[in-house]
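Quick check before the chapter quiz. The format below is the same one you will see on the exam, so make sure you can read both the input and the output lines.
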Amino acid sequence: MLKSLSLAAALCLTATTAALSQTYERIAVAGGDITEIIYALGAGERIVAVDSTSGYPDGTQTKAQIGYVRALSAEGVLSLSPDLLIGADDAGPAHVIDTLKSAGLTVALAPPGQGAQQVSAKIRFVGETLGLGDQADALIARYTEDMAFIKTRVDALESRPKVLFILSVRDGAPVVGGQETSANDIIELAGGTNAAGAFSGWKPMNSEALIAANPDFILMSGVHADNIGGDDKIMGRPDVQQTAAGQAGNLIKMDGLKLLGFGPRTAEAVAELMNHLHGHGD
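Here is the expected output.
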């Protein structure tokens, strides 16, 4: 019995390795973080299509579009004749993924999870799927070293300024990132304290709560800040003006995918945000 199980396990491992070693030449990608990883591994030329969250690096602008990562169209993907759809763990919807598989398309989705700790797992997943294990190991090593260096700098900090990440404005109320969000993770990694740490998830924050949170900095994606109406529209809000951030004019705008995507540029994003908060993140 044990011998049979061992043989079955060996055959399964062999089949898995063979599948992962296949060279995919027409790749459709759903997820900006996955796209960045593929480029970082040197396989960007194999990508034929990307989703709307894939805005980096510059070469992505010439690729065909397959829609938003969580709202893919099976017809749209299949019309491009990819030999692989590789995506973020939340790529979907689920029925579209099932349809693509039923149509014979190989679909590979990243392992679930978020935050800086998940970056190495995502890199390894992409490397194994594309047969680029050595390149993935090298990228993981660089990422791990960079993050360890930043952590030593953060651990030595004497202050933890309060940061409020505003995603958007809904019905006049800022939608902010609380605990268990990518915004919370990046703020803490950079040596800040989440001013919206009293709750979890993405939620609107009324004026009274925003004033009570009293952030030292407002943090936003540059694109979303522009969509809301620009710096003056954000910092000129009566509630923001009653906070330390508003009084000092402390608005930080960064590339949204770089800031919250948790991909190969995460160490760079943390260092950049740390520099804004503490003046010595480099």
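If your answer matched, good. The longest strand covers residues 162-170.
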